[in-house]
Each structure stands twice: as C-alpha cells, then as structure tokens.
Amino acid sequence: MPVETKARKCWMLDYTRSLWRLMSYMGVIFVCPLMGAWLSNKPLSPYLEFPPIPEKTQSPDFSWGVFCLIAVFSIMALKPFLSRIMLSNTRPYPEMPVQYCFPFWGWLGAIFMMLAWLVAWNRFEWFEAVQAFTFTPLWLSFILVINALTYRRIGRCLLINYTRYYLVLFVVSASLWWSFEFLNRFVQNWFYVGITDFGPGRYFIFATLPFSTVLPAVLGTAEWLNTFPVISVDLNRFKPLQLIGAKIIALSCVAAAAIGFAVLAILPKTLYLLVWLLPILLVTGLQSLTEKPDLVLDIEAGDWRRIWTLAVSGLICGLFWEMWNVNSLAHWKYSVSYVQRFEIFEMPLLGYLPFGIVCGLFADFILPSSLKNS
User: Fold this and answer.
1) Is 14 within 8 Å of 368 (Cβ atoms)?
2) Residue 85 within any structural domain of the chain
C-alpha cells in the first residue's frame, strides 16, 4: 500500500473515531439529565426550548458553611502544587535572551482588541448595530495576542506551527460549550441579558461564534504558561499514581458520570458543582475504553505540570472573560446557590480552575493526534 494512501486511511480512521467520541459524549450529556428530570416528574419542555428564555431564577441564599467547605476543598487541592513550587530546591534552567520579535499579527490583534474593548464598554450610537456582538472580536484578538506572546518567547506557537489542529479547536470548542449550555438548563447558574429578537437560527449562529473561542483561548494560554519553567517547577516529581487500567474501570467511570448527570437534574440547586466535575469523569472514562488519556499518562508518571498550567490558564481566561463581560451590552449574570458573594466582577470567587482541565481533556479526547502532527 502506498505511503500516501496509508496515511489517508489512518487520517480517516482518526476522524471517524473522533466523531464517535463526540457523539458518545453528547449522547450522555443530552440523555441522562433529561432522564433524571423525567424520573423526578419534571416537565421536559423547559429544557428543550430554543433559544432559552433569559431569566434569573431564585437560588438558595449564600451559606457560609457551603462556601467554607468548597474553599477548604479548593485550598487542599491547590496546596500540593503551590507547596511544591514555592519550596522547590530545583532551579529552572536560566532563560535564554529573547531572540524573536513580537510578530506583526500580534500587534494587529492588540490594536483590534483595544478597539473592540472600547466599543464593548461604551454606547456609541454609530456602533449600535454591533454593540451586542463584541465578545467574539475581543476573544479572537486575545487568541492572536497570546499566540504572539508565545511566539516571541520560543519562536513557535499553536497558531503558526499547528494551524490545522488549532483551527479545528474552534469547532470542538463550540461543541464543548454547547454541552455546558444544555447542562445549565438544569442548574440555571447563569443567564444572558441584552440579547433580544433572536430567532433560533440567529441565536445558534451568534452564540456559536463566541463559544468557538473558548478552547483556543485556554489552550493558547496554557502553551504560553509552559514557556515559563518557574510556573510549574518540580511538578514533574510527584509520586507516580496508577489510575484507570482495566476497561471495567473505564466503564464504571462512564456509568458513574451518567448516573451523576441524572441525579444532577433531580437536585440541581444542591449538586450544581457536578456540571464542572462530571465531564472530567465522563471524558476520562470514554477515552480510557480504547487508550489512556495523555493527562492520565502524565499523572501515572508523576508529572502534573500540564494539569497545573491548564488549571491556571482556565483561571486567567476566566478573569478576562468576566472583566470584558461586566460592562458589555450583551452579557451574562450569575445565580449560583450558596456561594453568590465575593465576586470578581460578576463571577463568584470560587470557580474556573477545573474548567481549564476540562478543556485540555476534551481537546485530547476529540482531536486525533495525527491532526496535530500533520
């Protein structure tokens, strides 16, 4: 068989596998919460309305007990990483002087970002027609700038060196965030305002565009963080852990995630945190049916650097998301049970760290490795 034909066949097999993985993930996300709502005798029609009705729902009041419990859990999760970094005796290799110029397309991104920011936070009459659509330009600009910052440090970046892979990330990103939008129908932790007169078609198009920027922004930021060895120094020296092995364990993870989504629909105001945790379990379980995820292989080798930079990149992007959101015409608001206090902009203080890990897992889960290597 000619090499080119063999490569094309492998390429098609990778894409077929990716499609099946995406369908499996979306199937669990869509069916299981609806099953839970049906079992608890809730009407299903509100979860299937499109576009969703933008309205604030009444959530349980702030609870110091719940807030402190989540805060303690978050601190315990962060402590091993921070302790390892701050107490490390390992000194990263001295950085080489920067040998690359900030690329012209990075400057274009920075200029366009400033202009989009100006329009987003002001109410100029001559920009009234585009006032509700500033989120996508802001984040496309951010993606250009963060890739340019990486390029300036190491002379390569995802956008330039893995262009095909990076462009497909936009499609994968839209799929991931639409799944969170569907889960939000049950927990109702956020809602959108400033968006009116959108039919189903226009809503889908104008929502998909900003949703598509999530993974490129988070993974681009993680790549930039990886160019600073001090950020994750010594995190490759943790004790190796043996995680998912036999297929029965992988199936158990998928089953636990499916049951969790059903229970989430029954007790949404109590178990809303599962929205951010169950996708990790589901993606890890589904991929482990055929192969171990890269992040699992890293953990088994005692290397937690990528998990750390993904988590931090989720937090960095979260801060920018919330900052640009707060004064924009079309924006989102939160209604989170028990912890709606001490916001950064409008974001409750406790959030976003697990999301970066979800982004990394989902990209590895859906996109074939051949795409990045091609």
Assistant:
1) yes
2) no
